[in-house]
Amino acid sequence: MAPDPRELDAYIAGRHHRLLRSAYLLCGDPHEADDLVQSTLVKVILARRRIDRIDSLDAYTRRTLYSTFISSRRRLWRREQPYGELPDRAGGAAGDIELGVLVRAALRQLPARQRAVLVLRFWEDLGVAETAQVLGIGQGTVKSHTARALASLRSTLGDALADEMLDEMGAAA
Amino acid sequence: MGDLMNEESAVHGLLDRALDQVEFPAVDPVAAVRARAQTARRRRRGRRALSAAVGAVVLAGAVLAVPSLRSDRESTPLRTDDRYYPVGTLLPADVSGLRVAELPGGPVESGPPNKAVRGTTYTFDRKGRSGFLEVNTVDPARGPGAPDLSEMFTGCPTALPPSRTCWSSDRHDGSVLEVSTVTSSSRAPQGEAAPWFGPVVGVTILYRDGRLVQLNAVTALGSPAPVTDPPLLTEGELIAMAGSQAWFGRDSVG
Which CATH class is domain A1-80? Predict the structure, then answer.
């Protein structure tokens, strides 16, 4: 049975912020992220009758968000042009705000699919198989995208990534 | 293995940092999404009704005049004398010097004529200035590779940054017209450094059969400083150009 409209409203209100943050990591612009999430949720509402149960909404919404993002990158008027140069590499003393800017710039350097894989794997903490299912690609492709995306982050963020690893090791110790 | 796990946690931490200090538009998500869904539903219903009406008229016409049926595609006159057809033909009469733009990354030109998606950036002169025109067309009948555009037009965004405007409307033939403007903007990470692009006036027409024409008139591409001069083609001129069926003619270079 299709979810009740009130259930959908509650779902939108409850999930909106989380979706917005994922969308921001994907597209790097708060207004575009808002548009992406709204477009996604409009599609979810319009497809309401095809969704059996409210608990399958999450999977449907996630798949829609990522496919809308990938499609938007194919849109002719949004041809992405990666920045020519990144700001200076993060040093050990980079502040949080500077680090945020650096990470955002490094993400924008990644091709759309690599960025989507990175966000699904490391922000949404999905496994390889689940990520492959969301994006409709093979598990091998997910692995190769992950490896390339991480290599690119290592190369652009260098010290900042190493520092973050040290912090993680410190926190785990 | 441990290093790998640390790296994965580190990436999660870094993505967290990327979200620091980000201010999202303050909108009521439920109201905004419901309003857009309502518009999308209305548009969908309108298209269905129009489609049924057009279908009935076409059927009646076909019964009465089978021998004289011709599609727009077939009736578009051949213009093999114009290298940039139909761009040169559709531009206002006072435009001169039409040529493919030489951009820093090389000219952006249409691919082979049998590709569904084609795009070219032209430059031209008008009113003593040079400007740019980006032409993008999609025609599934031309060949493979047409993206599914039907899901992409869910209306203009409700929360636009001050640098953008957007409006859209349904056309009499069931296609959707979207008009947007963007002020001069930078693609540098902080948004405050060269190169600067724009201002842009963009007109897109999406047909129900998946064909699309998009024309963006752009004042500057890669300027060292922000530019305020308006593009050399007006919104009205672009709408008139984009509405032509010549874009889908056999000799169109797109």
Answer: mainly alpha
